[in-house]
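Fold sample X.
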Amino acid sequence: MAIKRKDGDVQPGFRWGKFTTRIPGVHVNFSLPEMIQGGLLTTATGGVVAALTMNFFNVPFDVAWSIVLIQLFWLWFVPVVLFGEPYAPGWITPALPLVIVFLSGFTPGVPAIHAMIALTVCLSAIFLFFAVTGLGSAFFKWIPVELRAAIIFAGAIAAFTAEFDRLKTLPITLPVVWGVVIFLMFSVWFGTAKKNNKFFNFMASMALLVGFLVAAVVGSITGELTFNIRWGLHIPQITEYVTAVSPFFTGWPAWDFYVQAFPLAVMIYVFVFGDLVLGNTLLEEAGKTRTDEKIEVDNTKSHIILFIRNMGQLLSAGPFIALHGPMWTGVQVFLTERYKTGRQNLDSIYSATFNWYWPAFILIFLVPVVTFMQPLLPVALSITLILTGFACAYISLSMVKTPAAQGYAFFVGMIIAKFGPAWGLGLGVGLYLLLLIKYVPGLMADPDIIKSEIVKPDIIKKG
């Protein structure tokens, strides 16, 4: 039984500076529903990174699977257990399509590894800069909403383009799986029906897992997927993995890699700050219902933790293609809604984030789980990118309202997706100044002055 929290207090733990370390079973209770769903989904989605590692870092499956264990340490233990972040941590998923496009410009193996090292260093430097200066909020305000929409829309274009090309290898399985997952997550009538039907609600909450099961069935029937389920324990080949991808074995990239990576790192930071804003909003809304717990949110602390997670994994085991971000958005929304149902279901927000991840530490060692996931890795990657593209598309379209802004977002998004972040940022800034800027000193009147002037009646008559 964990230490009981007094109403209105912060969840107990070992306080050290800005951070709080909480031990499961001592400071936080166990929660079976989160353990079952989270363990399965965390293991399944972890396979996505293994697939990406195989493709871009040119390592075999048995070696690539080690990344699932390594990333769990930096994904869950460091931010939740060690530092006490209130978010359900995740990858920078909206940026993943752009990262894939970036890495596709390099030969698989050491060149792609060097490109990812450079991107990780650049992004980590941005995290550290904003942690030290506290200028994160100001930077986000400097980026026009139209350019933010273009960057997000570029993620949608990159995701859809990559997955439509993948149809050549799984022409039946992928469309069926896409249809099932998108239906469960975004269907209007199903969204209404699940509110009054426990089974439908359960299916929606397990949409990713349902997609994997559908892929296994359809892929087996069509012959597009072949399974060879084995039994036993799987020992991750961590030494082989580190030797293959660590900068201390592959060497550090040349200066030109950093130059190419920096514009993309700036774009990725826009996604990260957006996640922080969304995460803070969700927790603030939950706090209105759950007055029994005080949830501490500190953006400066979050920037420090993001720097430590990304550079920590880079220095200990090599670059991480998905990159560590503040929040797994879908899981954060799901867990926050469950948290709002009351203390009898979830004692603390940390009961949710603790229990969602740790069972995966056990599942990844089980050979039946590993061998079942192996043929499904392309499907796992595809589902992740299609959902990311779908979400990026509707979010970006909702951000811009005028015809000029919508056309700008679409055009600049295409430039970013097709020609890279450097061209995208350059043209994006230039076109914004030409098309969308509202006030140019010396060439037009300040709109605030215009609003303050009173139009005389005789002028109206002459007009």
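Fold sample Y, listed below.
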Amino acid sequence: MSAISIEVVRATSDQAKELCYRIRYDVFVRETGYIQKEIESGLEIDDYDRLDTTVHFLAYFNGQPAGSARLLLPNRSVSEREGGCYGLPMENLYDIRHYASTDLKIAEISRSCVKERFKSTKTIFCLWRSLIEYAGERGVTDLITNVNPETDSLSDTYLIYKHAKSNSLFDPDITVHPRKTGGKTSDYRFPLAKKPVGDSGEEFDIEELPQTLKLFTRVGLLFTGEPIYCSGIDMCALPMNWKLKDICKSPFGKFFQKKDAAEKAA
């Protein structure tokens, strides 16, 4: 059996960044269909990718480009231009002023993805470990993110929200608020698998979290607010927070501690 090699590098060259954007396109457009927008270049990219406060991470599995993630540090120019506190994309959907009243130092993790054929490997954890180390070395205490609940139905996403509430998966110290309300009410592309509650046939619950959210909670992320519908990509999102000092308490804590990432972040 040949040895398995997973290498994560910071994508600093234009060529390496383009690989990240191409992986994102392959995952979000071609493989999952979460983004329904054909792009001639085959690159999934936005304005935040070009900022000098955005750091891209690229994972290779046995030498093949396999996954990508990005870390967005606060950007003063963006915050002054758009009127937010941090200049992070999450502020387009959520009011996160709560963080400004704390001594927490935040950054945003987004566009985490691994190609389908590498999802059964540890590629995503290697990506996150490198990102956590980098963030911790720069004084970041908490990573914020909008997580895809794998449905475009806001009503179904609220079932996930209620399920998380009842299973103590919310951060008791942090609350963020949606900047808008309302969402999709018909023609769902990704309805949530759910089960009826009681005999009325009108109430539903879920047996477990969708795979993406299950993965995030297993590594220690906690929910911080209500879901929101993102009309731009026709998907829903849920806000989450990742306390880097508590990573060692998660089921995957030992993996993230291999390079002392949690200690650097504390």
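Sample Y note: The CA atoms of residues 94 and 179 lie 5 Å apart.
Also: Helices lie at 14-31, 76-82, 123-137, 154-166, 211-218, 253-256, 261-265.
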